[in-house]
Design brief:
The chain is an alpha+beta fold. Strands 1, 2, 3, 4, 5, 6, 7, 8, 9 and 10 form a ten-stranded mixed sheet that branches. A six-stranded mixed barrel has the order 13-14-19-16-18-17.
């Protein structure tokens, strides 16, 4: 066996061109598989970094106001009832992600984390590395705000000071006490990039300007739980559904029609990305098969040139098993070298994925080459050596000894080998077509999505958020005064054309909705009131964003807290709830207006509908409330500056904010086009990867066609010379060779079409505005493959045209 490896190594060194081409081909296929396997292993296969991860679940709700959305969040009173009444969870915790200003003045920092109840650490089975977690006493309103910090934040902000426990800090303008430090690498939710802190939920939210804790209709909390040992999902679902039914009877105004369901945390984390990753894994498997077919063709051609050698070995007594073993060892050695090269290529690809992958890809920062990936890579290499080596080895191990020795290597098995090589090329073309169609559909889908108009003009708009701490801006009048002073100053910055404000900002990832009833219509059953998205804004917002006014008027300076309560709606709201009736002058009670005994709001204007969360989603009903009538501590300010953005804009913004309040934190401004681009990151990522794999596939297919045609031209040199000596024209030779190339491509395309029609059904969930059977995409792919086949056959065909009949007739 050792001698076989030595001989195989010498054979590869003797043919450096052949060896290099085969290694590069295999490295492309194996490297792509290694990179994607690393993603799948990290995201889909690796268990969550918590003890008893298999018992961790998310609890989601569904509500009649949001049909089709089964990932509704909860109110704190509903969570408290689920926690105390359930019989299937050992711990049930509520949390919400949040960004806060840590510190004040020049030392302030914008950090991300979560606000959570005391059960979080019991549910996840993780305790602080230093200090302690929350106690049940810290789940009470009026308790002091306590906070745990992440390990990296501890190192970065406090230099790893062990005496940090008990220190006071300013968090969102409120005093908080650090009580613990989480272990290195800990974060939850794990799909979020940064989790710098965990703050006690109830005291933190209770001290905000809008205390949502006691409001059963304020849904803002996600719930994570740990099932008791031996309890399955079905039992837990039945348990929570029973509680949901009880709550619907007790609190029909808020909980009628709501239901609960339990989802494994692992499945919840990867649910959105699983289809795309499985499709990409199928794509790289196709790339590897194409690479194997290409290398098999190389070995078939090489086996034909070694037919004389193998015939001599057979004549000297070598058995067929020995010859097959020798040839398979050569392919295994080549595959292992290709696997090592593929591992390097895969490592580079992983670096690119970490740098350019979508932010919502879970555990993206944990991608790396580990022992499992290495084992997978070399297992794939060993398997591919059988895939591409077995058929050529079996073919070469059956030489016609007498003819091979007599012809001295002219190729007595040429016809049989040519058929196999052509079959491999047909397979390459078919597999390439499947990949190209998939990539083409995603590219078309991406282009369609990019062409969608969001309902406003994002180019030239810059946004930044401003958060006012309750300690200094507890009264609504102070919040209004702050922005009344700030907005005119911002509008006076040279280069700024318009300034507006809104909360939440479109494409920021934030949404807010409220139920409503229309005055004069029969009131719906308790808990069945319709809901719509709500945005707090001012009149200049619509001009700044270029949102068209369709009817009525926008808000103005007279729409203040002491003036009649008004609102605006978008066109989707008007069409859905008023049909052909004129909505102007209609009055609505929003949320708990009736409980507060507030007068209804009058609709004074209708504006065009806009996208809010994604370009792929349809416009939804929205209504707008003037900020001055319901001032909030947090808002986004939008500035239309045109292009390019004025130099020093952020510096000017910071200076003007500090002129009003020197302790205010001013975050970085963000172009609105960038926010929209971030919502396209996932489809851009899928399109780029599948497009890259398709490009590799068509390159390998073209090389395969070229190799077969070139080899056939070499084998048919005498035939071509005879034809030309008998009067055949060069253009006839050109047509003959190109016909062979295009025939193989046509057969491969025909087979590939059937495979593509079946495979692209899996892409349906990833497509936007394009059918899986889009004729334009299929036609373009077929044309592209035909062109590749034409040029792959053209070079050897031109070589055939230059054959000298005299030289050809003397050939060997």
């Amino acid at each position: 066996m050792l001698n076989d490896f030595r001989y195989a190594f010498r054979q590869l060194i003797k043919s450096p061109g052949f060896s290099l081409l085969a290694i590069v081909t295999l490295a492309l296929g194996i490297g792509a598989n290694s990179a994607i396997f690393s993603v799948i292993q990290t995201v889909l296969l690796r268990s969550l970094p918590f003890p008893n991860a298999d018992r961790l679940t998310m609890v989601w709700s569904s509500a009649p106001q949001h049909p089709g959305d089964n990932r509704q969040v909860h109110s704190y009173p509903d969570y408290a009832d689920l926690r105390t009444r359930n019989h299937t969870f050992s711990a049930l915790a509520a949390f919400t992600t949040t960004s806060v200003i840590w510190g004040s003045g020049d030392h302030a920092e914008d950090v991300s984390g979560i606000a959570a109840t005391s059960d979080l650490f019991d549910a996840l089975g993780t305790q602080p590395m230093v200090g302690r977690g929350f106690s049940r006493a810290e789940d009470e309103q009026g308790a002091p705000v306590t906070v745990l910090i992440g390990f990296d934040f501890w190192q970065r902000h406090y230099g790893g000071d062990a005496n940090v426990i008990g220190k006071e800090t300013l968090i969102q303008g409120r005093n908080g006490t650090i009580i613990g430090v989480m272990p290195r690498g800990w974060k939850f939710p794990i799909q979020h990039e940064n989790v710098d802190f965990v703050v006690s939920l109830v005291p933190f939210i209770s001290s905000s300007s809008q205390n949502l804790i006691p409001r059963r209709g304020a849904h803002f909390l996600s719930i994570v739980g740990s099932l008791k040992p031996g309890v399955d999902l079905r039992t837990a679902n039945a348990d929570l559904q029973t509680i949901a039914g009880q709550l619907a009877q007790q609190y029909p105004d808020n909980d009628a029609g709501r239901s609960e369901h339990v989802v494994p945390l692992q499945a919840d984390v990867v649910g959105d990305v699983r289809p795309a990753l499985l499709i990409l894994s199928a794509a790289v498997a196709l790339v590897l098969l194409i690479a194997c077919a290409n290398v098999a063709n190389l070995f078939l051609a090489r086996a034909a040139s070694r037919e004389h050698e193998i015939a001599i070995r057979t004549a000297l007594g070598a058995t067929r098993f020995q010859i097959v073993r020798q040839l398979l060892i050569e392919t295994l050695l080549l595959a292992l070298i290709g696997g090592a090269a593929g591992l390097i290529l895969g490592s580079w690809t992983i670096d690119l994925l970490r740098a350019n992958g979508p932010a919502d890809l879970p555990r993206l920062d944990q991608l790396h080459i580990n022992g499992t990936v290495v084992a997978f890579t070399f297992s794939v290499a060993a398997l591919t050596s059988l895939v591409f080596g077995l058929v050529p080895a079996l073919q070469a191990s059956r030489p016609e000894v007498e003819n091979a020795l007599k012809d001295a290597g002219r190729g007595s098995s040429a016809v049989r080998g040519n058929r196999l090589r052509s079959a491999f090329v047909v397979a390459q073309v078919a597999l390439s077509l499947v990949l190209l169609v998939g990539a083409g559909l995603l590219i078309r889908s991406f282009a369609q999505m990019r062409a969608v108009q969001p309902g406003f003009e994002p180019k030239g708009v810059t946004a930044f958020w401003q958060s006012l701490p309750k300690t200094h801006y507890g009264e609504p009048e102070k919040k209004t005064q702050f922005f009344d002073q700030l907005l005119p100053k911002l509008a006076a910055i040279p280069g700024v054309q318009e300034v507006g404000m809104v909360s939440p900002l479109p494409f920021s990832g934030d949404t807010s909705s409220r139920t409503f009833t229309i005055v004069g219509r029969e009131a719906p059953a308790a808990g069945m009131e319709p809901a719509a998205a709500i945005l707090l804004t001012n009149g200049n917002y619509f001009r700044t964003m270029r949102i068209p006014l369709l009817k009525g008027r926008t808000f103005n300076d007279r729409d203040r807290a002491d003036s009649p309560r008004v609102m605006m709606i978008n066109q989707s709201f008007a069409e859905k709830f008023f049909g052909k009736d004129n909505p102007l002058g209609q009055r609505l009670n929003i949320g708990n207006d009736l409980e507060k005994k507030l007068p209804p709001r009058e609709i004074i204007g209708v504006v065009g509908s806009t996208k809010h969360a994604s370009l792929a989603e349809p416009e939804t009903p929205e209504f707008y409330i003037p900020f001055a009538q319901e001032p909030d501590s947090f808002t986004e300010i939008v500035l239309r500056t045109g292009s390019p953005v004025p130099v020093g804009l952020e510096t000017a913004i910071r200076r003007l904010v500090h002129e009003i309040d020197s302790q205010q934190f001013v975050p970085s401004a963000r172009p609105l086009t960038k926010l929209i681009g971030q919502t396209l990151a996932q489809i851009r990522f899928n399109t780029a990867l599948l497009g890259a794999f398709a490009a590799i596939a068509i390159l390998l297919a073209a090389v395969g066609i070229y190799g077969v045609i070139a080899y056939n031209v070499t084998q048919r040199t005498r035939e071509i010379g005879i034809r030309m000596a008998l009067g055949a024209q060069k253009r006839q030779m050109l047509a003959m060779i190109l016909r062979q190339s295009l025939t193989m491509a046509a057969i491969g395309i025909s087979i590939g079409l059937a495979g593509a029609l079946a495979a692209t059904r899996l892409l349906g969930a990833l497509l936007f505005g394009v059918a899986a059977t889009d004729l334009l995409t299929y036609g373009g792919v077929i044309l592209l493959l035909a062109i590749a086949a034409f040029f792959a056959g053209l070079l050897p065909a031109r070589r055939a045209m230059r054959v000298d009949p005299v030289v050809a007739l003397r050939y060997e």
